[in-house]
Each structure stands twice: as C-alpha cells, then as structure tokens.
Design brief:
CATH class of the largest domain: Alpha Beta
Shape: globular
Number of strands: 15
CATH topology of the largest domain: Carbamate kinase
Distance between the termini: 34 Å
CATH superfamily of the largest domain: Acetylglutamate kinase-like
CATH architecture of the largest domain: 3-Layer(aba) Sandwich
Number of domains: 2
Strand content: 15-25%
Structural class: alpha/beta
Helix content: 25-40%
Radius of gyration: 23 Å
C-alpha cells in the first residue's frame, strides 16, 4: 500500500486494499428504544461490503450484538450482567446474530460464516495459526467471515473485553490492509464534542503518540449497548497500525455507512506504522518470550542472511518443550541469538529431524511434513550482517 497522508481519501485507501476488516458496534445493530435488530441497516452494510468484495478485496466482519440480542430474548433487566448471565445471553444471541447476518447478505449472493474466537485463539500461537488458516480458507472460498468473541465460554480473566480490540487482533491475524471501526462516533476529536464547544475533528493521525491517546475521555455515557468507548478504539487503532494496518474510525449510524465514507463522510484515518510483513516480524521478535531454542550451523546462518527458510539440514540441536506455532530463539554455534521464528514442528519432531534433508523428513516421522523448520515468512533476524559473520 502506498504511503498515506492527510489528503488520502477513503476511496483511494480502499482502492489500494486487498483485505479489509469491518467492525460494527452493538449500538449500531440494536435499536436504542427496545433492543431490536436494525435489520434494514444490516442489509445496507451488507450491500456496501458486497461492493467492496466485488471490487476485489477480501472482507471480514467483526460484529457485536450477541449479548444484547440474548439479553432482550431472555428479558434480562437493565444494568450490568453477572458473568453467568452474560454467558447465557451470548448463547441465546449468537445464533440469532449469525442468522440475521445470513439474511442481510442473502440478496448479495455472498455466503456468510460464523467464527467465534476466544482470547486464547489469538494469544496461543498454535491456535492463532489454526484460526488464521480457517479464515484464509473461508476467504479463498469467497465467504464473508462474521466474527465475534465467544462470550458463552469467555471469562472476565480470559477475554478481549470489547470487539474493538478483537477487530484489531483479527486484522493482525488476517494480514488486513485496512480496519474500519464503525460505531456511533464519527471519528477522533481533539476533545469530547458533547462536552466541549471548541472541540475540533482530527481527520488524519500519522503517529499514535501520547497526545493522541490523551484525546480519549472514556466511554460514551449515553451508549448502553456496548463496552467500547473512545479509549478502546484508540487502543485498537494503535494495536493495528503497529502491525501495518491502516485504521478508519467512523460513524456507522446512517444506512450504507461505507458508501457514505466514499462520498466524503467525516472520519479519522490512522496511518500504518509499517508494512504488514515488517510489523508481523517485529511482533515475533519483540513481544513473545521464546518457548524453546534451535541451534544451527554456520551454513544455516549464512542462508538465513540471504532470506532463506531454516531447514532441518542446518539444525544441530534444539531444546525446550515447544509446540508447532511457538516462537523459538535461533542460536548460532557460539550460542548467540541470531533470530526468532515460529516453529513448524513440535519439540519431539524437531529433535528427530535435526540435520536431515527435507526430502528425508517424511521417512523419519512417518507422515508428510513441511520442508522448513521455520519458514522465512515466520522468521526475523536479530543480528546485522556484520554481527552474523
């Protein structure tokens, strides 16, 4: 994606995007008066996303609303819900929400798929890889994943807490170019426009610094449906831009909200810090404690420096109780950490294939296997060329 600036229009942004994640908040899906679904509005958003899909971009949808729907169906009183009540409401509301999105997309000819995620699905690397593979398969088949947190099994200790951050994780997981956060907020303002007459809209953010984060003043006290205020949206935006994803914060209150953005509706565009590839490797290198170590010879060090994957032939040993998808530290013959990467094999398998040629792996393990211990797309070098030599 080309560099973004204050003059980049929404249409220019979407025209460059190959994959887009759109998040719709609870306040958009449910009528404030009685909590009923705004089915007509959902149909208009489905039309917008179908246009985006037919334009060549993959589309993933993160949808709130399951708890609100279940709460209404179960006739639960207002106010905060106990954990077990929230889980029960989600269990009732999730199939209702999935059915509503299926109905909304039906006129477009697109197939929807429900995907319920828990925190472990994005924080535990093996489950992250499996979740990513499922989403990739759905997109390859032309489906539109409708993603929500699985509140039926999530607890207060192990949950995202709001779908803004879930959407940012999905954007990271799927390698999205753009994340669109739709809610009842029409972008970032210098301060709360409901409280300050001199508040000014902020149309473009080049850097998510402390001054930007200070513009949040907490959740919207008038919104009773969702859990996310401006601070959660800024946290989600910061998470996404650090991983190379542009973020659009906009109001989704009107019908066809994406079409409205194309026509110039007010919004805030947050520019990505880096490309998706670089950001992902930064995440591998700096945010995860390695679950194990793999030792490699000098030839493998040189091959990695030229952009190759780490093959078993270059391995001299490994240690740690790691699983496929865990982050490993890559050590040279002097035990220096030259890089990190995601394991394609667990610890037992890795120990058995050390030093083997790729074509001999299947004979040793007894089943068809991957050629690389760590694929180059999942590997980041920590030493410069001079330091490696």
């Amino acid at each position: 994606m080309a560099a973004l600036n204050a003059h980049t229009s929404f249409s220019e942004l979407i025209g460059q995007a190959k994959r887009v994640v759109v998040k719709a908040g609870s306040s958009l899906l449910s009528a404030a008066k009685d909590g009923a679904l705004r089915q007509s509005w959902m149909g208009s958003l489905a039309e917008d996303l179908a246009q985006m899909r037919h334009g060549g971009a993959d589309v993933l949808m993160v949808s709130s609303g399951a708890v609100a729907l279940g709460r209404r169906a179960l006739k639960l009183s207002g106010g905060a819900l106990a954990l077990e009540q929230k889980q029960a409401a989600a269990a009732v509301g999730q199939p209702m929400l999935a059915g509503a999105w299926k109905e909304a997309f039906a006129p477009t000819g697109l197939v929807t798929a429900q995907a319920l995620l828990t925190l472990e699905d994005t924080e535990q690397r093996r489950r992250w890889l499996n979740s990513r593979a499922t989403l990739e398969a759905l997109l390859a088949l032309g489906a539109v994943p409708i993603i929500n947190e699985n509140d039926t099994v999530a607890t207060d200790e192990i949950r995202y807490g709001d779908n803004d951050r879930l959407a940012a994780r999905v954007a990271q997981m799927s390698g999205a170019d753009v994340l669109i956060l739709l809610s009842d907020i029409d972008g970032l303002w210098s301060c709360d426009p409901n409280r300050h007459a001199d508040a000014q809209p902020v149309p473009f953010v080049a850097d998510m610094d402390g001054a930007i984060m200070d513009m949040a003043e907490g959740p919207n006290p008038d919104s009773q449906m969702g859990t996310g205020g401006m601070i959660t949206k800024l946290l989600a935006a910061r998470m996404a831009v650090r991983h190379g994803c542009a973020v659009v914060l906009a109001s989704g209150v009107c019908a066809n909200p994406i079409a409205a953005l194309h026509q110039g509706a007010r919004h805030t565009l947050f520019a990505p810090a880096k490309t998706v590839t670089d950001a992902r490797k930064t995440w591998i290198a700096g945010t995860i404690k390695p679950a194990g170590q793999v030792h490699i010879d000098k030839g493998a060090v040189q091959a990695l420096g030229k952009g190759a994957s780490l093959l078993p032939a270059g391995m001299t040993g490994c240690n740690g109780a790691f699983e496929r998808g865990d982050v490993l530290a890559i050590l040279d013959e002097n035990s220096r950490e030259v890089g990190r990467g995601l394991a394609s094999y667990n610890a037992d398998e890795a120990a058995r294939i050390c030093g083997l040629r790729s074509e001999d792996i299947a004979d040793t393990l007894g089943y068809s296997a991957r050629a690389a211990m760590i694929h180059r797309d999942d590997l980041v070098l920590l030493l410069t060329e001079g330091e490696r030599s």
